[in-house]
Amino acid sequence: MNSITELLNLEDSDIFISDISIQGTTKTLTLETKLYSHYCPSCGFRMHSKGIKNRTIKHPILQDNYELILILKQRRWKCTNPECNYDISDSFKFVNKRRRTTNATDMLIVYAYRDLMETSVSIANRFHISDTHAHEVFDRYVKMDRLPLTDAICIDEVYLDMDEYCKYALVIQDFHTGDPIDLLRSRRVNVTEPYFVSIPTEERNAVRYLISDMYNQYISYVDKYFPNAVPVVDSFHVIQWITRIIDNYIRQLLKKFRQRDRELEDQLSYEQQKPVSLPPSDEVYLLQKYRWLILASQSNIKYHSDPRMDSHFHCLMNTFDYEDALFRIDPKLKDFRDLKETYLQFNTRNAGNPIKAREELSELIIMYQTCEHEIFRDFGDLLEKYEDYIINSFIMVEKHGAGKVYNSRLSNGPIESINRKVKDLKRLGRGFRNFEHFRNRFLYATRQNPVLNGVSEYNPVLYFEDDDT
Q1: Among the listed residues 302, 306, 328, 329, the one whose alpha carbon sits nearest the alpha carbon of residue 317
Q2: Which of 136, 277, 449, 457 is most buried per CB count within 10 Å?
Q3: Cα torsion 342, 348, 354, 355: sign
Q4: CA-to-CA distance for 228 and 149, rounded, in angstroms?
């Protein structure tokens, strides 16, 4: 405990620990500077000590549940030349003049912002400072630059609604590493066009794959800004499109049966001259609680064949029984489920083989377009419209994660996870008004190795200048 270098990670050989005391959960260290002859920097005369002032400093860096207090014995030196009278106090490199915390505290505050679950208020409470000060410290040191574009980038929007000019922010992500390249305040052309045009042409020409959903404005970025790239429509959004259409159909069915039940209640109430409340009908119960059997991928459903007592039907039922009961409500539901599963099975095959995928997709388009159900005929038209872009999603490229390098299909899946973090940050912070602060906070917390002001590895002491030296 006598080495200040080991304890505080400071290189200051002129300082030593003269006393250590522990009271409860508070550990107090007394620090002094080594005595040596002082000479006036103004006139060169010898300087004499005029007493010692104890200065109390907090240093929240220990990880052993102790609150660390530093008592700095600061000597005041005065020139012996009566015509000079120059005076100076001992300086400690790890704390600036008039500060009550060590310089390392600021870096600890900044590092705490790496956790998206932390807010300025929670960080301020931990370090016994105001939330305004914590906010100012973060803004002082964190200015996140755009990362260079790679050959595969993902683009998607996320709803922020920060102000009228910041409704849907645009997220740009590196597909290979999952790091967010940048966050733009809006997806509007007046924001995106100057941004992409400002990126050097050589950097934009190196982009080979632009992964997005079926939003035409994103697909048009290829022709506008990335001439050597091909658009890739993420398979997740194609599946999401047909799943949403089927879910809307089920919701309409549910609405129809609820209306029927309400009319029956009204009729019984009128006949009995008193309010009548009926339990949910079989159709409403099944459509409301078990429609996931139709919407979810069958490969993800764990069917149980052992019967279990159902509180609504008052009988033993298994997953297959619920499925059959759903299909009896409307025979179209089985067709919808099977047609959806056909596409899901196609989507899981031919990874890395776009040529074979194109052959199968062409057959699927014909099958859907000649289908008796209108929603799947529309789905067939959708597949035909984006056929080339969907086929591009079967291309495999290298991806980095968990310390491994592996091949993966081009997908916007990683950016959906990033978008979730954006929403969590907004929710936990109870809204933001400063987009630049929000952008810096988001990029700093989600990048694997964020760079602070051009320095990737930092020692807290190196970021502060000592006012006493």
Answers
A1: 306
A2: 136
A3: negative
A4: 13
pLDDT at 64: 58
Is the pLDDT confidence value at 459 over 50? no
Q: How large is the C-alpha radius of gyration of the chain?
A: 33
Least confident residue range of 10-14, 162-166, 318-322, 376-380 = 10-14
Half-sphere CA count of 380, side-chain side, radius 13 A: 18
Task: Give mean pLDDT, residues 442-448.
Answer: 89
Q: Which domains does the chain have, with CATH numbers?
A: 4-142+459-463 (no CATH), 152-234+395-446 (3.30.420.10), 238-337 (no CATH), 349-392 (no CATH)
Residue-wise pLDDT for 423-440, tens only, equals 888 877 777 788 898 899
Cβ neighbour number for residue 70 with a 10 Å cutoff: 21
Structure tokens at 150: 């790679």
Sign of CA dihedral 400, 406, 408, 414: negative
Residue 8: pLDDT above 60? no
Q: What is the mean pLDDT of residues 61-88?
A: 80
pTM tops 0.90, yes or no: no
241 close to 214: Cβ distance less than 8 angstroms: yes
Contacts for 366 with CB less than 8 Å, ≥ 6 apart: 380
Q: What size, in residues, is the chain? A: 469
